[in-house]
Amino acid sequence: MGIYTYICFLSALSILIGFITSKISARIQSTIAISAAAMVGSLFLLISGTFGWFSIENIATGIMQQIDFKSFLLNGILGFLLFAGALGIKLPILKDQKWEITVFALFSTLASTFIIGGLIYLAAQLIGLPIHFIYCVLFGSLISPTDPIAVLAIIKNLRAPKRLSMQVEGESLFNDGVGLVVFVTIFTVAFGGVEPTVGGIFELFIHEAVGGIIFGFILGLAAHLLISATDDGSMEILLTLTIPTAGFILANTLGVSGALAMVISGIMVGNWTRTKGFSEQSQRYLDHFWEMIDHFLNSLLFLLIGLALLLINVSWQSFILMLLAIPVCLFARYASLWIPYTLFTRFRTYNPYTLKIMTWGGLRGGLALAMALSIPAQTAMIGDTNLDVRDVILVMTYAVVMFSILVQGLTIEKMIQQAKKVDPNKEDYLRPTAETKARKNDDLNAYLSK
């Protein structure tokens, strides 16, 4: 059987698990249930093979290796998922949060990368694992950006307050693109033989990031002109498919960030073309069409995340680092957000649960695993040990991702409900001016005089 056959069966399995979950409990997110079921199934296969009950774990592992999780996500469905997520971003709210999202996506992602890299490096030295600092920073770069796929799949369904939701969603979409650029830059330094000069690293970063933004704008403009030129509702929807297909592949071929290109073009189509280019019929169908694609691909992706356990080799050193990686990543996430958040609170008033939700709701998902799997095997051994850098990084990544999805994803709802109770109608608003205070007093006096 070929890869297409495996994908068909796995897609059907993910949909069935989602269906069963919806019948058992509507409160459990289907994506979380799918990942949990796949991980439990993977554990069962590994345990059964160890005890000799039946040995099909090699077959299952072979299937996962054939699918090539990295290429399937990074060079395939990532474009669809990012474009679908960006379509739902409301530009007026995004503009209101532009400085927060920009700083969180740039500063916080970079700060978290080096905080995690430094702490993991120190932890590895303490347990006698002489892993090179550049590989620790590489792990920091792939695990620091929150995964918009995981975030959008879980946070959106919980109906968080609009502006708080936009901070989490907008930051995850943009820091995903920034994180991919940072990862590619550090990866090139670690494995590409590029001298780690400031100028060289800056040039790589600018080429990927700025190039991706410009290319995304060109894609969005081209799509807008084509969609505006037809009144055929079906053709208008089909034209949007050209962006995450040929557009995404072309961006990667040109060496610019396809992720950022999808985010920019998605925002343009979702805000500008939606009102100026689509017919009335297509405006109604646009969201339904892309929500269906997004839900289907998310179900398949979260199933593959759970099954990725079959690709992991665990040693005692990597097991210790795995346990340490979870609190390290949470601490780095909090610290990298707290610094700019404290500065912003001098100018704006936020929901008191904002920092907690952004920290605990900063989920990691398939994107981090795909980047970890892209690290070449058996090319960077650790000291005199038989441990491969790729295996160690993959173990830590899988632990953080599964903790993020299963623990953080299941418990974030309570924080969001508390945020709604504190300020159910508005949050993240500008500090009251003298004019707004006077208007409130006038309204109060008018009410009391009745």
From TrEMBL:
An annotated GO BP: sodium ion import across plasma membrane
Membrane topology: Multi-pass membrane protein
InterPro entries: Cation/H_exchanger_CPA1, Cation/H_exchanger_TM
TM ranges: 6-25, 32-56, 72-89, 101-124, 130-152, 173-192, 204-227, 248-272, 292-312, 319-341, 392-412
Stretch list, region Disordered: 427-450
Compositional bias of kind Basic and acidic residues: 427-443
GO MF term (any one): potassium:proton antiporter activity
One GO CC annotation: plasma membrane
Source species, domain of life: Bacteria
UniProt keywords, alphabetically: Antiport, Cell membrane, Ion transport, Membrane, Sodium, Sodium transport, Transmembrane, Transmembrane helix, Transport
Keyword flag Cell membrane: yes
Residues of the Cation/H+ exchanger transmembrane domain: 41-415
Compartments in which it is found: Cell membrane
Family (UniProt): Belongs to the monovalent cation:proton antiporter 1 (CPA1) transporter (TC 2.A.36) family.
Protein name: Sodium/proton antiporter, CPA1 family (TC 2.A.36)
Organism: Pasteurella testudinis DSM 23072
Organism lineage string: Bacteria, Pseudomonadati, Pseudomonadota, Gammaproteobacteria, Pasteurellales
